[in-house]
Specification:
About 35% of the residues lie in helices and about 20% in strands. The protein is α+β, with helices and mostly antiparallel strands and about 160 residues long. The chain contains five helices and four strands; from the N terminus they run αααβαββαβ. It has two domains: about 40 residues, Winged helix-like DNA-binding domain superfamily/Winged helix DNA-binding domain (Arc Repressor Mutant, subunit A, Orthogonal Bundle), CATH 1.10.10.10; about 70 residues, Alpha-Beta Plaits, CATH 3.30.70.920.
Length: about 160
């Protein structure tokens, strides 16, 4: 895949929006040193090219009561299309699963699961995830402390 052609102003716009996705065009203009018209044009280009996929609110899971995050790696009994589709469809239905990645290596998927407590995680694990057809093994890891968190890489 070719990298899209963006310049330092585009990168600055992305960095500003990463900090505050609700910044006005005027505030963005002041922050990057361009007038509003070129900033609007650049934002439209970044959106149309798919670099900016959308805008959203950042939700604090802990403030909502989901204080436990668990990383769960899953290995399927078969790595065939039907098994992958079955697992991926099931995961879409689990609100506890915040992120799901198809992986290389000795595990097929990596999930980040957010729950209120370990009891809720156990209920999810035993009552739902282990019952998905094709799941051969599961390994869970509980993070102690987040060291770095960002939304996306811009440089």
């Amino acid at each position: 895949m070719n990298r899209p052609k963006i310049d330092q102003f585009d990168i600055q716009l992305l960095q500003q929006l990463r900090k505050d996705g609700r910044m006005s065009i005027n505030d963005l203009s002041r922050a990057v040193g361009l007038s509003a018209t070129p900033v609007s044009r650049r934002l439209k280009h970044l959106e149309e090219s798919g670099i900016i996929r959308g805008y959203c609110a950042l939700i604090d899971e802990v403030a909502l009561g989901y204080s436990i995050s668990v990383f769960v790696s899953v290995q399927l009994d078969k790595q065939v299309d039907a098994a992958l589709e079955t697992f991926e469809s099931a995961v879409q239905e689990f609100p506890e699963v915040v992120d799901c990645w198809l992986m290389t290596g000795n595990r097929d998927y990596m999930l980040r699961v957010a729950t209120a407590d370990l009891q809720e995680f156990e209920q999810f694990l035993v009552g739902r995830l282990t019952k998905v057809k094709g799941v051969a093994s599961i390994e869970s890891s509980i993070p102690l402390r987040r060291i770095k968190s960002d939304i996306a890489r811009t440089v």
